[in-house]
Amino acid sequence: MAKGKTATHRPILICWALWVVACGSSCQKGSNTPTSEVRKPAASDSIFVPPDTSTIPRNATGDMIRYGRELLVNFPYYLGPKGTVGKYGGNGLGCQNCHLEAGTRPYGLNYFSAHARYPQYRAREGRILTLAERVNNCIERPLNGRPMPLDSKEMVAMVTYMQWLGKNVPVGGNVPGDKLKDIALLDRPADPVRGRVVYEKHCIRCHGDDGQGVLKEDGIAYVYPPLWGKLSYQPGSSMHRLIKSAQFIKYNMPNDIARWDKPVLTDEEAFDVAAYVNDDKLHERPQPNLDTEYPVLKEKPVDYYWPPYADGFAPDQHKYGPFKPIIDWRKKNGHPTGY
Question: Average of pLDDT values for 173-191?
Protein backbone atom coordinates (compact mmCIF):
# COMPACT_ATOMS: atom_id res chain seq x y z
CA MET A 1 0.00 0.00 0.00
CA ALA A 2 2.96 2.32 0.35
CA LYS A 3 5.16 3.65 -2.39
CA GLY A 4 8.71 2.54 -2.62
CA LYS A 5 10.77 -0.14 -4.31
CA THR A 6 8.93 -3.10 -5.65
CA ALA A 7 9.03 -6.40 -3.86
CA THR A 8 11.50 -8.00 -6.25
CA HIS A 9 14.05 -5.18 -5.95
CA ARG A 10 14.44 -4.67 -2.20
CA PRO A 11 15.12 -6.64 0.95
CA ILE A 12 12.18 -8.46 2.42
CA LEU A 13 10.28 -6.02 4.57
CA ILE A 14 7.73 -8.54 5.66
CA CYS A 15 4.61 -6.76 6.24
CA TRP A 16 -3.05 -7.27 1.05
CA ALA A 17 -4.24 -9.77 -1.30
CA LEU A 18 -5.10 -8.49 -2.41
CA TRP A 19 -7.04 -8.42 -1.56
CA VAL A 20 -5.20 -6.95 0.26
CA VAL A 21 -5.30 -5.73 1.00
CA ALA A 22 -4.69 -7.33 -2.15
CA CYS A 23 -1.35 -7.12 -3.19
CA GLY A 24 0.89 -4.17 -2.87
CA SER A 25 3.91 -5.54 -4.65
CA SER A 26 4.26 -5.00 -8.37
CA CYS A 27 5.28 -7.20 -11.28
CA GLN A 28 8.35 -5.71 -12.95
CA LYS A 29 8.76 -6.65 -16.59
CA GLY A 30 11.84 -8.73 -17.15
CA SER A 31 12.63 -8.94 -13.44
CA ASN A 32 14.53 -12.05 -12.47
CA THR A 33 16.10 -10.89 -9.24
CA PRO A 34 17.62 -13.88 -7.43
CA THR A 35 16.37 -14.64 -3.98
CA SER A 36 19.94 -14.18 -2.76
CA GLU A 37 19.19 -10.46 -2.88
CA VAL A 38 16.19 -10.96 -0.62
CA ARG A 39 16.61 -10.83 3.13
CA LYS A 40 17.17 -14.30 4.57
CA PRO A 41 15.42 -14.68 7.93
CA ALA A 42 17.79 -15.36 10.79
CA ALA A 43 17.85 -18.82 12.34
CA SER A 44 16.11 -17.38 15.37
CA ASP A 45 13.14 -16.51 13.18
CA SER A 46 12.37 -20.24 12.73
CA ILE A 47 11.06 -19.40 9.28
CA PHE A 48 11.52 -21.59 6.24
CA VAL A 49 14.19 -20.28 3.88
CA PRO A 50 13.55 -21.15 0.24
CA PRO A 51 16.44 -22.18 -2.03
CA ASP A 52 18.50 -19.47 -3.70
CA THR A 53 17.81 -18.94 -7.40
CA SER A 54 21.56 -19.28 -8.05
CA THR A 55 21.14 -22.98 -7.27
CA ILE A 56 18.69 -23.57 -10.12
CA PRO A 57 20.42 -26.13 -12.33
CA ARG A 58 21.78 -25.19 -15.73
CA ASN A 59 19.87 -27.77 -17.69
CA ALA A 60 16.45 -28.28 -19.29
CA THR A 61 14.73 -28.59 -15.92
CA GLY A 62 16.42 -25.43 -14.71
CA ASP A 63 15.26 -23.60 -17.82
CA MET A 64 11.66 -24.54 -16.99
CA ILE A 65 12.10 -23.43 -13.37
CA ARG A 66 13.43 -20.04 -14.48
CA TYR A 67 10.66 -19.70 -17.07
CA GLY A 68 8.02 -20.54 -14.50
CA ARG A 69 9.40 -17.93 -12.10
CA GLU A 70 9.46 -15.34 -14.85
CA LEU A 71 5.83 -16.08 -15.73
CA LEU A 72 4.74 -15.75 -12.10
CA VAL A 73 6.66 -12.51 -11.59
CA ASN A 74 5.57 -10.93 -14.88
CA PHE A 75 2.28 -12.68 -15.58
CA PRO A 76 0.54 -9.71 -17.28
CA TYR A 77 3.30 -9.41 -19.89
CA TYR A 78 3.16 -13.04 -20.89
CA LEU A 79 -0.34 -14.23 -20.07
CA GLY A 80 -2.47 -11.18 -19.25
CA PRO A 81 -5.00 -9.40 -21.48
CA LYS A 82 -2.12 -8.15 -23.64
CA GLY A 83 0.09 -11.18 -23.13
CA THR A 84 2.76 -12.10 -25.65
CA VAL A 85 2.44 -15.86 -25.03
CA GLY A 86 -1.27 -16.21 -24.33
CA LYS A 87 -4.22 -14.17 -23.12
CA TYR A 88 -5.60 -15.76 -19.98
CA GLY A 89 -5.65 -13.07 -17.30
CA GLY A 90 -8.44 -10.55 -17.65
CA ASN A 91 -7.52 -7.48 -15.64
CA GLY A 92 -3.81 -6.70 -15.63
CA LEU A 93 -3.20 -8.14 -12.17
CA GLY A 94 -0.51 -10.76 -11.76
CA CYS A 95 0.42 -13.59 -9.44
CA GLN A 96 3.00 -11.52 -7.60
CA ASN A 97 0.44 -8.93 -6.62
CA CYS A 98 -0.67 -11.37 -3.92
CA HIS A 99 2.02 -14.05 -3.80
CA LEU A 100 4.69 -11.59 -2.81
CA GLU A 101 8.30 -11.61 -3.99
CA ALA A 102 7.87 -14.44 -6.47
CA GLY A 103 6.07 -16.43 -3.81
CA THR A 104 9.00 -16.32 -1.36
CA ARG A 105 7.89 -13.88 1.32
CA PRO A 106 7.07 -15.51 4.68
CA TYR A 107 3.41 -14.98 5.61
CA GLY A 108 2.95 -13.31 2.20
CA LEU A 109 0.85 -16.01 0.48
CA ASN A 110 4.04 -17.75 -0.58
CA TYR A 111 4.43 -21.01 -2.48
CA PHE A 112 6.65 -22.73 0.09
CA SER A 113 4.51 -25.81 0.60
CA ALA A 114 2.12 -25.53 -2.35
CA HIS A 115 3.60 -28.41 -4.34
CA ALA A 116 4.01 -30.58 -1.26
CA ARG A 117 0.31 -30.33 -0.36
CA TYR A 118 -1.29 -30.94 -3.74
CA PRO A 119 -3.33 -32.74 -4.95
CA GLN A 120 -5.68 -31.91 -2.07
CA TYR A 121 -9.39 -31.70 -1.32
CA ARG A 122 -10.84 -28.24 -1.89
CA ALA A 123 -14.13 -27.47 -0.20
CA ARG A 124 -14.97 -24.73 -2.70
CA GLU A 125 -15.20 -27.29 -5.48
CA GLY A 126 -16.03 -30.24 -3.26
CA ARG A 127 -13.37 -32.42 -4.88
CA ILE A 128 -9.66 -33.14 -5.15
CA LEU A 129 -7.73 -30.53 -7.14
CA THR A 130 -4.25 -30.70 -8.61
CA LEU A 131 -1.85 -27.81 -8.15
CA ALA A 132 -2.32 -26.79 -11.79
CA GLU A 133 -6.09 -26.65 -11.27
CA ARG A 134 -5.48 -24.49 -8.21
CA VAL A 135 -3.37 -22.11 -10.30
CA ASN A 136 -6.30 -21.84 -12.70
CA ASN A 137 -8.54 -20.93 -9.75
CA CYS A 138 -6.40 -17.84 -9.27
CA ILE A 139 -6.37 -16.98 -12.96
CA GLU A 140 -10.16 -17.26 -13.18
CA ARG A 141 -11.08 -15.50 -9.94
CA PRO A 142 -8.59 -12.84 -8.77
CA LEU A 143 -7.29 -12.26 -12.31
CA ASN A 144 -10.77 -12.33 -13.91
CA GLY A 145 -9.48 -14.66 -16.60
CA ARG A 146 -10.00 -18.03 -18.19
CA PRO A 147 -8.28 -21.33 -17.35
CA MET A 148 -5.01 -22.25 -19.01
CA PRO A 149 -4.54 -25.70 -20.55
CA LEU A 150 -3.28 -27.91 -17.74
CA ASP A 151 -0.60 -29.46 -19.96
CA SER A 152 0.63 -26.22 -21.52
CA LYS A 153 4.31 -25.36 -21.31
CA GLU A 154 3.50 -22.30 -19.24
CA MET A 155 1.42 -24.16 -16.67
CA VAL A 156 4.04 -26.89 -16.38
CA ALA A 157 6.73 -24.25 -15.94
CA MET A 158 4.90 -22.46 -13.12
CA VAL A 159 4.24 -25.70 -11.26
CA THR A 160 7.87 -26.74 -11.81
CA TYR A 161 9.05 -23.50 -10.20
CA MET A 162 6.77 -24.12 -7.21
CA GLN A 163 8.12 -27.65 -6.92
CA TRP A 164 11.69 -26.37 -6.91
CA LEU A 165 10.89 -23.64 -4.41
CA GLY A 166 9.48 -26.18 -1.97
CA LYS A 167 11.94 -28.98 -2.62
CA ASN A 168 12.90 -29.11 1.07
CA VAL A 169 9.31 -29.23 2.29
CA PRO A 170 8.05 -32.65 3.46
CA VAL A 171 5.37 -34.16 1.22
CA GLY A 172 1.95 -33.31 2.59
CA GLY A 173 3.46 -31.02 5.21
CA ASN A 174 3.83 -27.40 6.15
CA VAL A 175 6.81 -25.28 7.12
CA PRO A 176 7.01 -22.20 9.35
CA GLY A 177 5.89 -19.08 7.49
CA ASP A 178 3.99 -20.79 4.69
CA LYS A 179 0.54 -19.80 5.92
CA LEU A 180 -0.97 -16.42 6.68
CA LYS A 181 -0.01 -15.37 10.19
CA ASP A 182 -2.63 -15.62 12.93
CA ILE A 183 -4.62 -12.56 13.89
CA ALA A 184 -6.87 -12.00 16.90
CA LEU A 185 -10.54 -12.12 15.93
CA LEU A 186 -12.57 -9.09 16.99
CA ASP A 187 -15.44 -9.20 19.46
CA ARG A 188 -17.36 -6.80 17.24
CA PRO A 189 -18.16 -6.58 13.55
CA ALA A 190 -15.43 -5.04 11.43
CA ASP A 191 -16.32 -1.43 10.62
CA PRO A 192 -15.92 -0.06 7.07
CA VAL A 193 -16.31 3.52 8.37
CA ARG A 194 -13.33 3.10 10.67
CA GLY A 195 -11.61 1.25 7.87
CA ARG A 196 -11.83 4.24 5.57
CA VAL A 197 -9.86 6.25 8.10
CA VAL A 198 -7.17 3.57 8.12
CA TYR A 199 -7.20 3.47 4.33
CA GLU A 200 -6.74 7.22 4.05
CA LYS A 201 -3.85 7.13 6.49
CA HIS A 202 -1.93 4.13 5.18
CA CYS A 203 -3.19 3.02 1.77
CA ILE A 204 -4.38 5.96 -0.28
CA ARG A 205 -0.87 7.11 -1.19
CA CYS A 206 -0.42 4.04 -3.38
CA HIS A 207 -3.84 2.65 -4.19
CA GLY A 208 -5.45 6.05 -4.62
CA ASP A 209 -8.61 7.64 -3.25
CA ASP A 210 -10.59 5.72 -5.86
CA GLY A 211 -8.92 2.40 -5.04
CA GLN A 212 -7.78 1.95 -8.64
CA GLY A 213 -4.07 1.73 -7.92
CA VAL A 214 -1.39 2.90 -10.34
CA LEU A 215 -1.07 1.40 -13.81
CA LYS A 216 2.40 1.32 -15.33
CA GLU A 217 3.10 3.64 -18.22
CA ASP A 218 3.02 0.71 -20.63
CA GLY A 219 -0.62 0.09 -19.71
CA ILE A 220 0.00 -3.64 -19.17
CA ALA A 221 0.68 -4.20 -15.47
CA TYR A 222 0.27 -2.32 -12.20
CA VAL A 223 2.77 -0.63 -9.95
CA TYR A 224 0.10 -0.72 -7.24
CA PRO A 225 -2.95 -2.87 -7.98
CA PRO A 226 -6.59 -1.80 -7.85
CA LEU A 227 -8.39 -2.89 -4.70
CA TRP A 228 -11.91 -2.62 -6.07
CA GLY A 229 -13.64 -1.87 -9.34
CA LYS A 230 -14.12 -3.86 -12.54
CA LEU A 231 -10.39 -4.57 -12.86
CA SER A 232 -9.87 -5.85 -9.33
CA TYR A 233 -10.36 -9.30 -7.83
CA GLN A 234 -13.76 -10.98 -7.76
CA PRO A 235 -15.88 -11.97 -4.76
CA GLY A 236 -15.02 -15.50 -3.75
CA SER A 237 -11.32 -14.73 -3.99
CA SER A 238 -9.35 -15.22 -0.80
CA MET A 239 -8.76 -11.48 -0.54
CA HIS A 240 -12.50 -10.90 -0.48
CA ARG A 241 -12.83 -12.94 2.69
CA LEU A 242 -12.43 -10.71 5.70
CA ILE A 243 -10.20 -12.80 7.96
CA LYS A 244 -7.80 -13.80 5.21
CA SER A 245 -7.66 -10.24 3.94
CA ALA A 246 -6.99 -8.86 7.43
CA GLN A 247 -4.21 -11.40 8.01
CA PHE A 248 -2.53 -10.46 4.75
CA ILE A 249 -2.88 -6.73 5.37
CA LYS A 250 -1.59 -6.72 8.92
CA TYR A 251 1.64 -8.56 8.20
CA ASN A 252 2.39 -7.24 4.71
CA MET A 253 1.03 -3.68 4.47
CA PRO A 254 2.03 -0.91 4.04
CA ASN A 255 4.30 -2.81 1.71
CA ASP A 256 7.38 -0.61 2.05
CA ILE A 257 7.64 -0.60 5.84
CA ALA A 258 5.66 -3.45 7.40
CA ARG A 259 6.93 -6.99 7.89
CA TRP A 260 5.66 -10.09 9.59
CA ASP A 261 7.54 -9.47 12.84
CA LYS A 262 7.07 -5.68 12.81
CA PRO A 263 3.52 -4.93 11.64
CA VAL A 264 2.32 -1.35 11.32
CA LEU A 265 -1.41 -1.90 11.77
CA THR A 266 -3.21 -3.26 14.79
CA ASP A 267 -5.55 -6.23 14.50
CA GLU A 268 -8.55 -3.89 14.65
CA GLU A 269 -7.14 -1.61 11.96
CA ALA A 270 -6.44 -4.56 9.67
CA PHE A 271 -9.98 -5.90 10.05
CA ASP A 272 -11.59 -2.51 9.58
CA VAL A 273 -9.62 -1.57 6.48
CA ALA A 274 -10.29 -5.01 5.00
CA ALA A 275 -14.00 -4.41 5.62
CA TYR A 276 -13.79 -1.03 3.89
CA VAL A 277 -11.96 -2.36 0.83
CA ASN A 278 -14.30 -5.33 0.48
CA ASP A 279 -17.56 -3.51 1.16
CA ASP A 280 -19.75 -4.31 -1.85
CA LYS A 281 -22.18 -1.54 -0.95
CA LEU A 282 -19.39 1.02 -1.34
CA HIS A 283 -17.31 -0.50 -4.11
CA GLU A 284 -18.11 -2.12 -7.42
CA ARG A 285 -16.52 -5.47 -8.20
CA PRO A 286 -16.91 -8.17 -10.90
CA GLN A 287 -19.70 -10.57 -9.96
CA PRO A 288 -19.10 -14.27 -10.71
CA ASN A 289 -21.68 -16.99 -10.18
CA LEU A 290 -21.08 -18.22 -6.63
CA ASP A 291 -24.14 -20.47 -6.35
CA THR A 292 -22.27 -23.66 -7.19
CA GLU A 293 -19.39 -23.08 -4.78
CA TYR A 294 -19.06 -25.09 -1.57
CA PRO A 295 -21.51 -27.85 -2.49
CA VAL A 296 -21.26 -29.07 1.11
CA LEU A 297 -22.71 -26.08 2.98
CA LYS A 298 -21.10 -26.78 6.32
CA GLU A 299 -17.69 -26.56 4.66
CA LYS A 300 -18.06 -22.88 3.77
CA PRO A 301 -15.41 -20.82 5.58
CA VAL A 302 -16.74 -18.75 8.45
CA ASP A 303 -15.87 -15.54 6.57
CA TYR A 304 -17.39 -16.54 3.23
CA TYR A 305 -20.16 -14.00 2.70
CA TRP A 306 -22.31 -15.66 0.03
CA PRO A 307 -25.35 -17.56 1.43
CA PRO A 308 -26.80 -20.03 2.15
CA TYR A 309 -25.08 -21.44 5.25
CA ALA A 310 -25.52 -24.52 7.37
CA ASP A 311 -25.02 -22.62 10.64
CA GLY A 312 -27.92 -20.18 10.56
CA PHE A 313 -25.91 -16.98 11.03
CA ALA A 314 -26.74 -13.97 8.85
CA PRO A 315 -24.73 -13.04 5.74
CA ASP A 316 -23.56 -9.76 7.30
CA GLN A 317 -22.08 -11.64 10.24
CA HIS A 318 -20.28 -14.00 7.89
CA LYS A 319 -18.94 -10.99 6.03
CA TYR A 320 -18.00 -8.64 8.89
CA GLY A 321 -18.12 -10.76 12.04
CA PRO A 322 -17.98 -11.15 14.90
CA PHE A 323 -16.78 -14.62 13.98
CA LYS A 324 -16.27 -16.14 17.40
CA PRO A 325 -19.98 -17.01 17.87
CA ILE A 326 -20.00 -18.74 14.47
CA ILE A 327 -16.89 -20.71 15.34
CA ASP A 328 -18.25 -21.66 18.75
CA TRP A 329 -21.52 -22.87 17.21
CA ARG A 330 -19.67 -24.89 14.59
CA LYS A 331 -17.43 -26.51 17.17
CA LYS A 332 -20.44 -27.45 19.27
CA ASN A 333 -22.21 -28.96 16.28
CA GLY A 334 -19.23 -30.72 14.75
CA HIS A 335 -18.90 -28.46 11.70
CA PRO A 336 -15.61 -27.28 10.18
CA THR A 337 -14.38 -23.96 11.64
CA GLY A 338 -11.90 -22.99 8.95
CA TYR A 339 -11.20 -19.60 7.45
Answer: 97
